[in-house]
Design brief:
The chain has 508 residues and is mainly alpha-helical. The protein folds into three domains: 120 residues, Rossmann fold; 191 residues, Serine Threonine Protein Phosphatase 5, Tetratricopeptide repeat (Alpha Horseshoe); 167 residues, Orthogonal Bundle (DNA Cyclobutane Dipyrimidine Photolyase, subunit A, domain 3). Helix content is 49%, strand content 5%. It has 22 helices and five strands. Strands 3-2-1-4-5 form a five-stranded parallel beta sheet, with helices on both faces. Strand 4, helix 4 and strand 5 form a beta-alpha-beta unit. Helix 5 packs across helix 12, helix 9 packs across helix 12 and helix 16 crosses helix 17. It is globular, with a radius of gyration of 24 Å. The chain binds flavin-adenine dinucleotide and iron/sulfur cluster (SF4). The site of iron/sulfur cluster has 14 residues, from helix 14, helix 18 and helix 19. The site of iron/sulfur cluster (SF4) has 14 residues, from helix 14, helix 18 and helix 19.
Length: 508
């Protein structure tokens, strides 16, 4: 009896557990572009092009290899259930194998379908750390330290480890060598490494037209699509990163330069999140470059930390804490998201540039997300669920599993500090050190309150003043609270007045 291998849209690679034992001769691949999933939110047009084109390329590639593929394109409008009914009628499979979905809602939906169809869900292999393993490590802990998780993964997989059990280079962390400032970048002669966008092929061009027709009001321009859509291209993109940008990744990891969008970042998140790349191969290629002397250890460790550390940790927290996590609002933030997050019309230059970039490309690098957008959303007290929704809509690499803990936990501290011991709150000092945004801004970083002052300055102190009691026992914010306490009543009033005036102006 034939079996069905159900391939979900973000399981398009060699780590798909359902494909592992599949037989080309007997089994049928089943794939659906469900309008329910693709139309759940008004997603950036380029995100939709990526998802649909990658799935179509995968199916096309499998057909060429001789597989039977039963594919339900968006134009047919079939939900998973409708498509399954049609598929079962046609192919009468004895069993339908599917790897665990990566997102909670999808997992729930598949579990519901198990009652109606002979579906077997297999543990996902798309992450280094199995879900159950992370959960048993994390269970019972009041808060989680990414660093502890990261060292555990490095030891278990032997990534950058010596035979004596010590980390290569004698240290776990090379932050001191990394994270150079904008001024350092200028002094170094403004190093850059261009990334060539991928030229859309026939399938992608058709998908671009489809997205333009079906989702005309969604943000972004489908026609400007620029990313890899199949494994071959994704591997080439990774090789390019390792050869051309990995060496500069560490030093320029936190840098932000107006009109220099990608700098030395890998931009592999759009493809690794669809399974087109595996986390292990990304890490191993970076380590191999280090061993051949083509990239310094500090950069390579920084990159390995992102994948083996942060990526796995974020996924672990998600599965540990869902579904309650989606509703957390530990700081009681209730302000609606300002409209300018969609229009980009704001006179805060750092926000204007970052939002313009995501509108154009569906992408910002990590520090833009965390220290510009995220920092602003935190300080302004924006409701976490509204912020999460915006991030989910706007980014090409967005998926619920990766957005939830990044936005709610890391950025907005809405989980009560479960995954970040202190809020990533900062005044203008950080942005002006790491970028040149302030040079083109009407606000002044050296003015602390009033209409000319950079809003990050007074919003930062207003944030701690609002939450003084809550953070009183947190030693990691002790310095900030001590400085706040030293401010005179007049200074505190000026801060509160400036914040009130500014925040009143962004409320719709
Ligand atoms: C508010 C916010 C929202 C984010 N949303 C997403 C998202 O929707 N999808 C997404 O993949 N990442 C997200 N991240 C994490 C990170 O910003 C992106 O993975 C990274 O910017 C992607 O660019 P890159 O591939 O060039 O990454 P690099 O800087 O080159 O890092 C390499 C890889 O490490 C992984 N990684 C690094 N940091 C994280 C992290 N915090 N969480 C998960 N993976 C990480 C990614 O797979 C990334 O591709 C978010 C971070 C923040 C602060
Ligand atoms: S001055 Fe303030 S608002 Fe303007 S770019 Fe700098 S940090 Fe952003």
């Amino acid at each position: 009896m034939p079996r069905t291998i159900w391939v979900l849209g973000d399981q398009l690679g060699p780590d798909n557990a359902a494909l592992a034992g599949a037989r080309k001769k007997d089994d049928v691949l089943f794939m659906v572009e469900s309008p329910k999933h693709l139309g759940k939110l008004p997603y950036h047009q380029q995100r939709l092009v990526l998802l649909i084109s990658a799935a179509r390329h995968f199916a096309e590639g499998k057909r060429k290899e001789g597989w039977k593929v039963d594919y339900y394109p968006l134009e047919e409008g079939a939900t998973w259930e409708v498509a399954l009914v049609a598929h079962v009628k046609k192919h009468k499979p004895e069993r339908i194998l599917v790897a665990q979905p990566n997102n909670y809602d999808e997992q729930q939906a598949v579990e519901k379908l198990v009652k109606k169809f002979p579906i077997e869900i297999l543990p996902t292999r798309q992450f280094l750390v199995p879900r159950t393993d992370f959960i048993s490590w994390a269970k019972g802990r009041k808060s989680l330290l990414m660093e502890t998780h990261y060292r555990r993964v490095r030891q278990e997989f032997g990534f950058l480890m010596q035979a004596d059990g010590q980390p290569v280079g004698g240290r776990w962390n090379f932050d001191e060598e990394n994270r150079k400032t904008f001024r350092d970048w200028v002094k170094a002669g403004r190093p850059r490494a261009d990334i060539a966008p991928v030229k859309p092929d026939k399938i992608t061009r058709e998908v671009i037209s489809l997205v333009e027709k079906k989702f005309p009001k969604n943000p972004g321009r489908a026609a400007d699509f620029w990313l890899p859509v199949d494994r071959e291209e994704a591997l080439r993109w990774l090789e390019d990163f390792v050869a051309l940008r990995l060496a500069g990744f560490g030093p320029w990891e936190d840098l932000m330069v107006q009109d220099e969008q990608l700098l030395f970042h890998s931009v592999i998140s759009p493809t690794i999140n669809l399974g087109l790349l595996t986390p292990r191969e990304c890490i191993e290629k970076a380590i191999a470059a280090c061993e051949k002397g083509k990239a310094p250890l500090a950069s390579v460790e920084g990159f390995v930390r992102q994948i083996a550390g942060w990526r796995e940790f974020i996924n672990g927290v998600y599965w540990l804490k869902m579904p309650e996590y989606a509703e957390v609002n530990g700081l009681g933030a209730e302000r609606p998201l300002p409209d300018f997050f969609y229009t980009g019309e704001t006179d805060l230059n750092c926000l204007r540039q970052t939002i313009a970039q995501v509108r154009a490309t569906g992408f910002n690098h990590h520090i833009q997300r965390l220290m510009v957008l995220g920092n602003f959303l935190l300080l302004a007290g924006i409701k976490p669920q509204e912020a999460l929704r915006w991030f989910l809509e706007m980014y090409v690499d967005a998926h619920d599993w990766v957005m939830a803990a990044n936005v709610l936990g890391m950025v907005l501290h809405a989980d009560g500090g479960f995954m970040a011991t202190k809020p990533y709150a900062a005044g203008s000092g950080y942005i002006s050190r790491m970028s040149n945004y302030c040079q083109g801004c009407r606000y002044k970083t050296d003015i602390k309150t009033g209409p000319e002052a950079c809003p990050f300055n007074y919003l930062y102190w207003d944030f701690y003043a609002r939450h003084e009691a809550r953070f009183a026992k947190n030693p990691r914010v002790g310095m900030a609270l001590k400085t706040l306490k030293k401010k005179s009543p007049a200074e505190r009033k000026a801060i509160a007045d400036s914040a009130k005036q500014f925040l009143g102006g962004i409320d719709g």
